[in-house]
Structure formats: structure tokens, C-alpha cells
Amino acid sequence: MRVFTVILGILCLAEVLLDAFQTIILPRRASGRFRVSRIVMTATWLRWRSIARKVRRTNRREGFLSYFGPLSLLLLVVIWAIGLIVGFGLLFHGIGSPFSDAHSIGKWETDLYVSGTTLFTLGLGDVVPLTVLGRCLAALESGIGLAFVAGVIGYLPVLYSAFSRREVSIILLDARAGSPPTALELLRRHSGSTGELALQTLLVEWERWSAELLESHISYPQLCFFRSQHDNQSWLSALVAMLDTCALLIATVEGDAARQAQLTFVMARHAVLDLAHIFGVKGRHSESERLPETSLQTICEQLSIAGFKLCTGDASIQRLRELRSMYEPEAFQLGRLLMQELPPFYPQPGKRSNWAQITGLRSQTEASLLSSDQRKSLAVNQAAIDETHSF
Fold first, then answer.
1. Is residue 135 domain-shared with residue 263, that is, in the same domain?
2. pTM of the model
3. How many domains does the chain have?
4. SS3 for 221?
5. In angstroms, rounded to a whole number, what is the distance separating the alpha carbons of residues 106 and 342?
6. Boundaries of domain holding 281
């Protein structure tokens, strides 16, 4: 018996099986820097990202990046299978290659061949183990092969189910905050007498969404590489947009929605910090300021026009700055790593959204039911809304 070969085979199997168990079955964050899945995902993503940076057109670049998530999963499964085949092949070779091979292609080649056919339970019968230990290892490998295939089959639906739940909320956010989502647009679309209640309901939904994101993406970090359906949407931009909204509500806006904003902010920030820790990125502020002081003043003016009661002043600006420092550095580094841009605080100037068009049509409907004086008042309000959306 070749002791060193046997030990090497056992170590190879232990590394692969432990990594597969932590990745597929264990419902919590996997530990260890030298795991197979971590090394494969990191090495392949860095190369994939460097190629994507050479693609100039945004839609083509996003399309290229969208292939990485599914392909990396397939590559990981292949590497696991190769690791199991090589591990059992080393064990067979270490115990002396106890097989009857009519073709005599070589002991090491025969060991790998038997290991491969046994793992995938082909059962060709052209090579037969002659010793009790060889037969026991063959039976053990066939059982592990069945469990491996069953685990992979059950693993993919879990991933895509979590991905689908994540994307539904992101798509729904388009009508509530624009695309890409912005804090100012979200608040403006939830202004008015019934807007505050709708805003609180939305914040409750996104508190739960953040908790689900935290649970699923920490257990399965591969989901972070899955891109959204549209180029101007991503799970990171949606999460940061909600954090921006909560920060504005907590620091500057009066009303009952501020309490729920605190709960949502805590959960969303928890998700950002934990995911940053998973990928080993350290917080660092971006080179460009996301919210200059002049832009903040303009945002406050737009919120006042929309009907929000604001707590303005240097103290509010300082509170907002402190809140942003609690998530922006980590979010910025995650965006750099995953090639996902953080959303602005306000929409692009001059871009009229579908929401503004639909609001205008609804205003025409309401105007037809009002008196002449009421129509004039409504026209003035609509003009203010149009001016707001041109910002």
C-alpha cells in the first residue's frame, strides 16, 4: 500500500466533499479561505471581469457579465466531479490497483477509469475489483455519486427560486422609484394624502426583502453574480436606493414613516455589511461625491414641492452624512467588485418617465370632473410636478 497516495486521495476527497456540503447543504455562511468554490469563483470572476471591461457598449457588457453566474455554477460542478474521480482514483492506486483489466491500459489510467464509471454509476463491468477493500471503495464511490447528483439537482432549483423572488421586487420597484431607482423619485411618487401609508407599506416589504436577501445570498454567494433582467437594474442598486430613501426619511423628513424607515435601514445595512464581509472587501468612500451639498438643497426643495415636511438645517445635513457613512463605503466596494453602479439620489435631468406620463393622463381625467376654478388649481399643481420631474 502506498501510504502517501492514500493520504493524498483522502485529503482530496475531504476537501471536495466538505466544500460541496458547505455550498449545497449547509444553510449558513461557509467558512474557510481555501475552499474549492471560493478559489474557483474568485479566479474566474477576476478574469471574466477584466474581459468585460474591454466591452464598450453597456448592453453587450451586461449580457456578457450575465453569463458568468450560470456558467460558474456548471464549472464548479465539473470541478467537484473531477475532484471526486481523482480522489477515489488515488485511493484505488494507493491500495495497489486491485482490478481485473483485460485491456491493460495501465494501472493509473485504469484506476481513473474505474473511478469515473463508478461515480456516475455506469456499471459497464469491463473492469472488476478483485479484493474486498476495492469492492468496498467502489460501492462507497457509487453511493457518493448518487448523493452528488441528487444534491446538484436539488441545488439549482433552490438558487433560481431565490433569484426569482429577488428579481420580482426589483422589477416592481421600477414603478415606485424609477429605473435606475432613486430616493428622490421614490419619495415623490409616494407624496400626497395616501402616499405616506403606501410608503410605510413599501418600507415594510423591503425590510423583509432585505432579510431574505441576507439569508439567501450569504448561504449562496453565487447569487450575487446573477444579473438582473434589465441593464439599469441590479440587486445592489435597489438595496442602496432603499438605504438612501431611509436615510433621507430619518434625517430630514417629518412623519410616521420615519420609524419604519429606521427598521428597514437597519436590515438593509446589515445585508450590505455582511455581503461585503463575505467577499472580503473593506469599506472605502468613492472618489466622487454621490450627494453634493448643492444637490441636497435641490432635493429638499423638490420634496417640499411634493408636500413633505422637512427638518432642514446643518444638523439634518450632518445626520444624513453620518447615516450615509454607515453603508456607502461597503456598497461602493461591492459595486466595484461586481461591476454594478450605485444609483444616484435623484433621476437624470430631462428624462420623463412613464410614471409622469400616466400621472398626467390621470390628472386630465380628474380635471374633467372638476369645476373651472378647480381645474386651474390642478393645472398649477401639474405644472409644478412637470417641473419637478425635469430636475
1. no
2. 0.83
3. 3
4. helix
5. 57
6. 173-348
